[in-house]
Automatic annotation (TrEMBL):
Keyword ATP-binding: yes
Residues in AMP-dependent synthetase/ligase domain copies: 60-436
Domain called AMP-binding enzyme C-terminal: residue spans: 486-563
Organism of provenance: Amycolatopsis taiwanensis
Protein name from the UniProt record: acetate--CoA ligase
GO biological process: acetyl-CoA biosynthetic process
MF terms in GO: acetate-CoA ligase activity; ATP binding
EC number: 6.2.1.1
InterPro entries, alphabetized: AMP-bd_C, AMP-bd_C_sf, AMP-binding_CS, AMP-dep_synth/lig_dom, ANL_N_sf
């Protein structure tokens, strides 16, 4: 199905941070962009200083930095000066405990102020910070604490009791467990009195741009999680890309719905908005359509960064529900976490009065690499175009679906419409520096001067990139290479379909047969007539690459960040090992 481009008004183009795309790419350099950072007063670079302390000592010190909404809907605000003092207190607690520069501080918390204080305070102390998702079960937590050689864990009493207490003794490196609140149980220390008992002044460690700062675990299809290590200079990419891709400005009220336990929730849910001096909204509550619209309205959110899964859930609600809320402050919406289906872009334009701007990046890249921009037309279904300072290519693929490497060389595809492995030229500041204790895996991620993403994409004549699928997801059927995302998007254009997951199953003639798992919108039942209708709908939209089989499933497996897990669908369909399940929603 062809979707018409969404063009921007002259006023939107004039107000955008990134205006002339070609000129911006031609003139941009990371060396010049470094002058946007302040640097530590005594020399060096520290993420927490760029995000908080430089504002706390200037005219923005009394501006709201963190606006937190608790589960009951009560709103609390910390100014930049408040956040600077609290994070300095946390750094002093670490110093009092004898925690040394370079040691690893883990957080296992929901979206509560102590999480932001611990992340920023750990960075001030020169530690490597690793946020964990609070919904992990005990074994995924133990595994990451052990792999990441945790020295300190900051968690809540409830999470400690349910998930940490039984495993803490099995992690040799773990010396300190801090629990939020005023009460500690054996083996822990209460954070509130510890913070109250130390100074609000702290001299930030003189960290250098290349010093390790953040460790983010990302799950592979099999085996143990990968720990991607990032450095303090990553803040430059967080700052620059938030300006270009999210059109973020100092007076914005910014809401990133991603949990800080994931890379998005750290890069753009903590660091980037604070580096711009914006006000960051954080909601402790779970997803609920009315609650989310209420947050957007009551907090006068101007820039909203959310996930395709959340948008699809909003699309299931009454079409007139958004009209009950005053969303007039909202000026920019962006999406992250998985490719954005084109119907969500169009729904948002028609229902909210603003389109959703998709973008693409990975845990390893640390920041947005490809995006749709505020001043430029959106082509629904496209990831957009590379950001200034980011060089992107498509590489010819071999039989295994990945870039074909011959004698250490790869072949770049230059023509429009060709599909290849998406690859990036290293050199941006937030590129990961290694996989923790896995240098061989890190080396395999590069070839011939390219970082190999494992994603398959195509490029149109105007330089817009279109996601096809992960290399290990792409289906080869009767000589056709079928991208699951294209099939899923086509099925989701049907009024009955809420979500779809597409895999290939063995076929003795075609090689692989395209099979779709479909969840339905409210009001539609899984009937045989509807199944036949969807098969015909797919054939009309996709022709030869349409699904040959459709199975209804109202409980598609998702990662905790919202992606449909195709590999898990395939493993269950074929009776294969399911691999690492620690990031699966509902798994513990």
């Amino acid at each position: 199905m062809e979707w018409a481009p969404i063009r921007k008004s002259a006023a939107a183009r004039a107000a955008a941070n990134l205006g002339d795309y070609g000129r911006a790419r031609a003139e941009f350099s990371w060396d010049a962009a470094r002058f946007e950072l302040f640097g530590l007063p005594g020399g060096g670079l520290n993420i927490a200083y760029e995000a908080v302390d430089r504002h706390a000592s200037g005219p923005r010190r009394n501006r709201g930095a963190l606006r937190w909404i608790d589960r009951h809907g009560e709103v609390f605000q910390l100014t930049y000066r408040d956040l600077a003092e609290l994070s300095s207190r946390f750094a002093n607690v670490l110093r009092e405990l004898g925690v040394r520069r370079g040691e690893h501080v883990f957080t296992l918390l929901g979206r509560v102020p102590d999480l932001y204080v611990a992340v920023l305070g750990g960075l001030k102390a020169g530690c490597v910070v690793c946020p964990l998702f609070s919904a992990f079960g005990p074994e995924p937590i133990r595994q990451r604490l052990a792999l990441g050689e945790a020295t300190v864990l900051v968690t809540s009493p409830e999470l400690h009791h349910r998930k940490v207490r039984a495993i803490a003794g099995s992690i040799p490196s773990l010396r300190h467990v801090l629990v939020t609140g005023a009460q500690a149980e054996p083996g822990t220390r209460a954070l509130a009195p510890a913070l109250a008992g130390v100074s609000p002044e702290f001299e930030i460690c003189p960290t250098r741009p290349e010093d390790p700062a953040l460790l983010h675990f990302t799950s592979g299809t099999t085996g143990t999680p990968k720990g991607a290590l990032h450095v303090h200079e990553a803040v430059l990419a967080h700052h620059v890309t938030a300006g270009f891709a999210l059109d973020l400005k100092p007076d914005d009220v910014f809401w990133c719905t991603a949990d800080p336990g994931w890379v998005t929730g750290t890069s753009y849910g903590v660091i980037a908005p604070l580096s711009h001096g914006a006000t960051l909204v954080s909601d402790e509550g779970d997803f609920d359509a009315r609650r989310w619209y209420s947050v957007l309205a009551s907090q006068r959110v101007t820039v909203w960064y959310t996930a395709p899964t959340a948008l699809r859930m909003l699309m299931r609600q009454r079409h007139d529900l958004p009209a009950e809320y005053d969303l007039s402050a909202l000026r920019f919406i962006a999406s992250v976490g998985e490719p954005l289906n084109p119907e969500a872009v169009v729904w948002s334009q028609e229902t909210l009065g603003l389109p959703v701007h998709d973008n693409w990046w990975q845990t390893e890249t640390g920041a947005i690499m490809i995006s749709n921009f505020a001043a430029h037309e959106i082509r629904p279904g496209s990831m957009g175009r590379p950001l200034p300072g980011i060089d992107v290519g498509l590489l010819q693929r071999g039989k295994n679906g990945r870039a074909r490497v011959h004698d250490g060389r790869v072949t770049e595809l230059t023509g429009a419409g060709q599909e290849g492995e998406l690859a990036l030229r290293p050199g941006w500041p937030s590129m990961f520096r290694t996989y923790w204790h896995d240098p061989d895996r890190y080396a395999r991620a590069f070839a011939d001067g390219w970082y190999l993403t494992g994603d398959i994409a195509r490029r149109d004549p105007d330089g817009y990139y279109w996601f096809v699928g992960r290399a290990d997801d792409v289906i080869e059927s009767a000589g056709h290479l079928v991208g699951p995302f294209e099939v899923e998007s086509a099925l989701m254009a049907h009024a009955a379909v809420a979500e779809a997951g597409v895999i290939g199953t063995p076929d003795p003639v075609a090689g692989e047969r395209v099979k779709a798992f479909v969840s339905l919108r409210d009001g539609h039942g899984p009937t045989e007539d509807l199944r036949l209708e969807l098969l015909a709908f797919g054939r009309r939209a996709l022709g030869a690459v349409a699904p040959k089989e459709i199975e209804f499933d109202q409980h598609l497996p998702h990662t905790r960040s919202g992606k449909v897990m195709r590999r898990l669908l395939k493993a269950r369909e074929l009776g294969l090992p399911e691999g690492d399940l620690s990031t699966v929603e509902g798994f513990s």
